[in-house]
Amino acid sequence: MENTKIIKAAILKNRGGFDNASDDQIMTIWSMLDSDTKAAYLDSVKEPKGKKTNANSDG
Amino acid sequence: MSQLTRKRIIQIAVETNKGTKVAGTLLLQVEDLDINPTGSYEKRPGSGKYLGNDLPGTAGEQSGEVSFTTELLSAGSAALNTGLVALFQAAAFKQTLEVYTPTSDSSVAETVSIDVFEDGNKKSLAGCAGTWTIEGDVGKPAKIKWEFKGVWQPTVAAALPTVTLISTLPMKMTAFTLDGDPVGISKYALAAGAEVAYKKDGVATGVVNGIVVQSDPELSIDPEDQLVSAYDFDGIRLAGTEAAVVMTFSDGTYTATITLAKVNTKDLKGADRDGVKTYDWTGQVNNSAGDDAISIEMGAAA
Quick check: ipTM above 0.85? Predict the structure, then answer.
């Protein structure tokens, strides 16, 4: 099961107005979402594969 | 002589002893003024020999109600109009400098005497406690609807008193934010939702004064709908998330800022405003840390 931190980030990225919501409130709305929406939200906060965080993209 | 409905004046005063009538001294400039006795009518049994009523009935407890609408006015300074101060105090709000907040302490809540002069007669209530709703359309003056319960006084003959016109400009809304953002409202209504009961005692009137015994403040607005990613009205309703509301009013010189620290969605219905998708939104106004569900703060305009 996804951890609360990731779920919170996913909700905050995709749904406005939850900045001051408690973890319980975040989990309440998360539990109501269908699996496709959950997957899309989690994808939206995933780091792209192979991303080199310290790389200089200027080449 | 015909008495004219236009010719009526209302004056109020805070009572030193709750329920003990004092003469009204603070003028209120009002519309939709209505004052009536609400006591019961007590039938008497009569002998029982005949059908019908052998004896006249008698008046029961001497309760009464008054309702009216005022503007939201400053005192011509960074302070609230003195008549409104008295009304808020009788609606179980306490004054701390120029900040007004609810009080759960019945010894702090005041009562007012209310005199209504009606073109030659005077109707009065003593020991009044009540509630209010501030409402309006954006761009227009804010109005406060007041409803008070008190002890009915016998109507007496009295000429309209001398008054000094209050020429302070009315306040209107200049900003509204929900959770820190403007949400495109066209109208608003904030109800203090005070429930007023009568304090009773073994006295001829039966009732001594009104007393606020509970409150259920509520905010109604008509915000524009938004994308879920911008503001998730429905998700916030489902999760029970609270948000702060700030309503700012100004007369051009002085301001009144109403802050609701925590409001959560009670009711959400889709609506239409001239072709724009909106909600009829109702929120329950909650305490954050004690008696702080509503704060009204007067100040000078920035």
Answer: no
